[in-house]
């Protein structure tokens, strides 16, 4: 990883950032995927990363997790990721990847226990605290009842809830999730939002790549990416955030206010008269 110099005053590490990234460039093979990107995740804040297909969202999340090298630097609680001892870092930063392959024939409970590995000495048996964390995480995602079932025998949505429980069981200060709602039905999507809100009140910095824009708009902040560049980081209600969303998605969104909350639908889904009936209004700013 090449370290780029900070520009004093502009790029000073933020005291309140749980995770902060200054990515000058990130290339995959010959392809430049991310460029000139500065962002921060704050403790107790849920940040949704959005943008069109191929914008670089998953690549960015992997760089934030230290899974993908970049030209630039990523700081976890002010300290360069590379300077963290591996075990300590794995306790502080938890990760839920996109389309993670089922871990062989492991039982769901064993998979979630993997999230406790950074808390345990090599080959040490699980402690009472480990078992309690696993149970708490599995109850939170509604999968405790399947703890004896093999991951390979679960449906896509059931498996996703087990993998989410594994990430929760780490009890990290930063939780990064790539498309956590994949395979989840609407009630379980709502449960996920409730879970994230609970983590937020505990001070966790949560970042999630989301394609479900109406759910992303319930986050505290949005990071809008397009073409490997950060168009904007800001609150969902900010006019600048919504302009960035429209720009990223080629102005093919209807962003509407519904009972004081923002939602977004692909333009064309709602008939025009539906949008004009006064039940929902676009941001006037
Ligand atoms: N291994 C690779 N080698 C070269 N280019 C890659 C590689 N992996 C991904 N890319 C390219 O990098 C860009 C960003 O990919 P990424 O998966 O980060 O996008 P994304 O925003 O998460 O997309 P999606 O919404 O479709 O999941 C894409 O143009 C993709 O084709």
From TrEMBL:
Job description of the protein: Part of the ABC transporter complex HmuTUV involved in hemin import. Responsible for energy coupling to the transport system.
Gene3D superfamilies assigned: P-loop containing nucleotide triphosphate hydrolases
Descriptive protein name: ABC transporter ATP-binding protein
Keywords: ATP-binding, Cell membrane, Membrane, Nucleotide-binding, Translocase, Transport
Annotated organism of origin: Azohydromonas caseinilytica
Source domain of life: Bacteria
Pfam families named in the record: ABC_tran
SMART domains found in the cross-reference section: AAA (SM00382)
InterPro entries: AAA+_ATPase, ABC_transporter-like_ATP-bd, ABC_transporter-like_CS, P-loop_NTPase
GO MF annotation list: ATP binding; ATP hydrolysis activity
Ranges where the ABC transporter domain occurs: 19-252
